[in-house]
Amino acid sequence: MLHVDPRMRKEALGERVRAAMGRTAAGVVVISTHGPAGRGGITVSSFCSVSLDPPSALACIRRDSSTLRLIVENGVFAANVLADNQADIAAAFASPTTAHEDRFTQGVWLDEGAGGPTLTGAVAHFDCRLAQTTEFGSHTIIIGEIVEALSHPARPLVYAERGFHRLPEA
C-alpha cells in the first residue's frame, strides 16, 4: 500500500500528479508540420509508438496550440526525436511566445519529408499522415500512420525533473 504523507494531501491532485510525472524520464520530440496551412512545430514529451501494424505513433498536444491547428489542417506531421546537444531547439519550440518561423531558425531543417520539416542531427524522425485525433482534458491526442522512419547515430535528449538531461555513456 502506498503511503501518502498527510501534508501532501493538502496539495491539489493536479500538483501531485505534476510532481510525480516530473520524476519520470521522457524523450524530447519536436512535432513539426508543413503544407497549405503553413509550417509550424512544438516540443512535446508525450510521444510513443501505437502499433507496428499499421506502423503508427501518437503525441499529445495542448488543445489551444496553434501547431495543433496546423497539423489538423495539413493532415501530416513529423516527429523529430532530439539529440542530447539540441536542448536549445527544444526550448525554442516549447516557447508559446516564439513565432513558428522564428522557431525554425534554431538548427538545420529540411522541408523534404512527407510529414513535416525534419531536423538535421536528430536521433530519429518519423513522417506521419494524420490518422485520428482524440480530445481528452486539456490536450488532443494525435495519432499518425508512419509513412517513413529514419534513425541516426546520436544520443537522445531526455526530459526529467523539469529539465533537459544527457544520458550517461553506455
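The record above closes out task 2.4. Task 2.5 opens with a second protein, given below.
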Amino acid sequence: MKVHILHNAQALGEAAASLAANVINEQIAAKGKARLVLSTGASQFETLEALVKHEIDWAKVEMFHLDEYVGLPEQHPASFRRYLQERFVQLVPIQMVHFVNGEGDIKDHLDALSREITQEPIDLALIGIGENAHIAFNDPPADFTTQEAYIVVNLDENCKKQQVREGWFTAVSTVPQQAITMTVHQIMQSRVIISSVPHKAKASAIRAFFEHEVTNTVPATILKTHSHYTLFLDQESASEVDQKHI
C-alpha cells in the first residue's frame, strides 16, 4: 500500500488522476485497451475533473461503474448514472460504458453486468471511501464472502446521512432504502486500485482505516490487503491519523 498526503483536494485530485492516467495508458500500450471502474460522490469531483483532461485514447477504454440506488430515475440529481454522464462520459470520447441501472428488472440487469465485468480483468478501479468506511455501497458489516460481482444491499443510516449532508437528497427519509453495488470481492479483483479521499468529513473513517486490522465493520480495511493499492489523502482527511500508522 502506498499513501500520499497532498495539501488540498485539488492537489489530491490532480495527483490521483495523473497516476490513474499512467495506469490506463500503460495498459493500452501493452494490450490495446484498458478496463476501468469509476466511483462517484463528492470526494471524486477533483479526480474526475483532472482525469478527463489527460491525454488518453478513451475509445480504447471500457468503463464500469460501482453502484446505483434502486428505483431512482437517471434524471434525479443524486443518480450516479447522471453524475457519470455529466462529469465523465459527455466529456471524453468513450464508447464502451456499462452503467448500473436501479430501475426495471434488476435480476436480469445484475446478470448482464456480471457477465460483462467478469469476461476479463479490470485494470484500474477508482474506489472512494465513505464516512462510514464503506467501499461502493458495501456498508458495515460488509459482505466479504460473496463471490457475486454485483448485489442488492440495504443502506445503513450513516450512509443515508452522508448523502443528505453532501446535498444529494433533502432528507434521510428521501434516500432510497436499497442500492445495487459492486461487491467487495469484485472490487478486489482489480489489478490496480486508487482511492481519492479528501475532506474533513472523511477524517474519522481514515483514522479507522489505519487503526483497525481487516474487518468488515470497517469495510475499507480490506483495501490494505491489495497488492497494488494507493490511497490519496489531503491534509483534512488525514488530520486524525497518527503518523506512526502511515
